[in-house]
UniProtKB/TrEMBL annotation:
Transcriptional regulator LmrA/YxaF-like C-terminal domain segment(s): 75-173
Keyword Transcription listed: yes
Domain HTH tetR-type: 15-51
Keyword hit for Zinc: no
Keywords: DNA-binding, Transcription, Transcription regulation
Coiled coil, from the record: none
Classification lineage: Bacteria, Bacillati, Actinomycetota, Actinomycetes, Mycobacteriales
Descriptive protein name: TetR family transcriptional regulator
UniProt superkingdom: Bacteria
GO MF, one annotated term: DNA binding
Amino acid sequence: MVSPRERMVVSTALLIRERGAHSTAISDVLAHSGAPRGSAYHYFPGGRNQLLCEAVDYAADFIAAQIDAAPNALQVLDVVFDGFRTSLAESDYRAGCPVVAVAVEADNAPALDRAAAAFTRWMESIRRRLEDDGVSHGRAEEIAMLLMTSLEGAIVVARATRDATPIDLVHRQLRAIVAAETGEGNSLR
C-alpha cells in the first residue's frame, strides 16, 4: 500500500511534467494525490522546495530503473524513448520530463542540484550499459551525453509542436549510432 507521503511525491512529479514547477502548488498536489490537507507540512517540513526535490528524486529513480533493467544499450534507447513517446501521446502532449521542468524553472539551488544529479545518474547508467556492450569509456560518455540531451530536446519540441516526429527521428538516429558502436547488425525496429 502506498502511503500519503509517497502519493504526494508521485503526484508532484506527474503534475510538474505537465504543468511545470512554478505552476504546481501544494494544494494541487493534495488534490491530485488525495492526501489529507495537513499532511503536506507534516511529511514535508521543508515545504514546496522539499517536495520538488523529492519529486525529482522519484523521477530519477523511475528512469534509472528502466535503464538498469534493459538487457542492452539498444533496449535502453527503446524503453526510454517509447516511455516518453507513450506519455506524450496519452497526455495529449502535456507530459514532458519533470526533471527538465525543475531544471528550467526552479529558482533554488537544492532543486537544481537534484536535477543535475538526476541527469548525471542517467548518463552514467547509459555509459555503463554502453561499456558493457563493448563501447570504449570515452565514446560511451559522448553517446550518453548525446542521448540525454537529444532526448530531452526532442521531448520539448514534441510538446511544443504536438507531434512525435522529433522523438521518432532522434530515436532512429541514436539507434543507428548505438548499433554501429556496439556491433549490433540491425538498428531498425
